[in-house]
Design brief:
Radius of gyration: 19 Å
Number of helices: 14
Strand content: under 5%
Structural class: mainly alpha
Helix content: over 70%
Distance between the termini: 45 Å
C-alpha cells in the first residue's frame, strides 16, 4: 500500500470516528425534528448495508428485501399487541422469527438465478404483503395503529420516545456496520470479495458459492426485521402498503447504494447520507 493510500485510509477512518462521536452526542445538540431525521437515516443505512452485502458481494440482486422489513414490522406488532409479549423481549424475538421465515424463502429464491432471482424476490415480497393484508387482528388492507401503552413503553413523553428511537436506530446501525465489517474481514469475507471480483474464478478456486450466498441471505434477514421494528415505531402503525413499501425500503435503497458505490463498505454510508440530504433540502422543489 502506498503512502497516499495510507493517508486516504487514515483520513477515512478519522472521519468515520468523528461521525460516530457526533452521532453519540446527537441528543445533546439536536432538536426533535433533527433526531427524527437521523433515526430514519440510521434505519435506511441498515437496509443499505444489507442490500450492498447481498448485491455488491454475494451477487444476489434482490428487489424484494422490503419483504423482511414488513415481516419484522408485523411480527413485532403481533408479539407486543396480540401475544402480549413485553417490548424488551419482542424486539430480539422479532429478529429470530424473521430469520426463521427467511429459511423457506431462501429455498425458493435460490432455485433462481440472475434476472429471475430478482423477479422472484419481488414476487415473494408481494405475496408476503398480500398475506399480511389478510391476517386477522392487523387491520386488513388499511392497517392498524400501535396501542398507546405499547408506544409509552418507549417513553412517557414525545421527546423521550424520539430519543429512545434515536438510540435504538443508532445502535442497530453500528451493530450492522461492525458485524458486516467483521464478516468481510473473515475467511468468508475473502470468499465474498472473490465473488465480487470474479464469480467464475472464485468458484474454480474452491469458494463454496452456494454456502456463502445462503449465509449472506440469512445474515441480512434479522437486521431487516429489526429495521421493520424501527419503521413501525416511527410510523406508530403497521399497514401492508407502508410496512412492505417497495419504493422506500428497496428502490431508494438501491439508488443510495449505487450512488455511494456498490461493493464497498463505505458506499452505503455515503449514498444514504446523500439521499437524505437531497430529500430533505430539495423536497420543496
Amino acid at each position: 500500500m502506498t503512502d497516499r493510500n495510507h493517508i486516504a485510509t487514515a483520513f477515512a477512518r478519522a472521519v468515520l470516528v468523528a461521525a460516530v462521536l457526533a452521532c453519540l452526542a446527537g441528543p445533546w445538540f439536536m432538536d426533535r425534528t433533527q433526531m427524527s431525521v437521523m433515526t430514519e437515516f440510521f434505519t435506511l443505512l441498515v437496509m443499505a448495508l444489507m442490500w450492498n452485502l447481498l448485491a455488491g458481494y454475494a451477487d444476489i440482486i434482490t428487489v424484494g428485501q422490503h419483504a423482511f422489513v414488513g415481516i419484522g414490522a408485523y411480527v413485532f406488532f403481533g408479539l407486543t399487541v396480540l401475544a402480549g409479549v413485553d417490548v424488551v423481549w419482542a424486539i430480539p424475538l422479532t429478529a429470530l422469527v424473521t430469520l426463521l421465515l427467511a429459511l423457506p424463502s431462501m429455498i425458493v429464491v435460490f432455485r433462481l438465478r440472475a434476472a429471475y432471482l430478482a423477479v422472484g424476490t419481488w414476487v415473494l415480497a408481494e405475496v408476503a404483503m398480500l398475506i399480511a393484508g389478510k391476517l386477522p387482528g392487523f387491520g386488513g388492507g388499511s392497517g392498524i395503529s400501535l396501542p398507546i401503552p405499547i408506544v409509552k413503553a418507549f417513553g412517557s413523553s414525545l421527546t423521550g420516545r424520539i430519543e429512545t428511537f434515536y438510540w435504538m436506530a443508532l445502535g442497530l446501525a453500528l451493530a450492522a456496520f461492525a458485524t458486516t465489517f467483521a464478516l468481510l474481514r473473515s475467511r468468508i469475507g475473502l470468499g465474498l470479495t472473490a465473488i465480487r471480483d470474479n464469480e467464475e474464478s472464485a468458484g474454480s478456486s474452491g469458494v463454496d458459492l452456494v454456502r456463502i450466498r445462503a449465509l449472506c441471505f440469512l445474515w441480512t434477514a434479522p437486521f431487516l426485521g429489526l429495521a421493520g421494528v424501527l419503521v413501525t415505531l416511527q410510523k406508530l402503525r403497521v399497514a401492508p402498503t407502508a410496512s412492505f413499501n417497495i419504493a422506500d425500503w428497496t428502490i431508494f435503497i438501491i439508488f443510495a447504494v449505487v450512488i455511494g458505490g456498490i461493493g464497498s463498505l463505505e458506499g452505503p454510508i455515503i449514498g444514504t447520507a446523500l439521499y437524505i440530504v437531497l430529500r430533505e433540502y430539495l423536497s420543496g422543489y
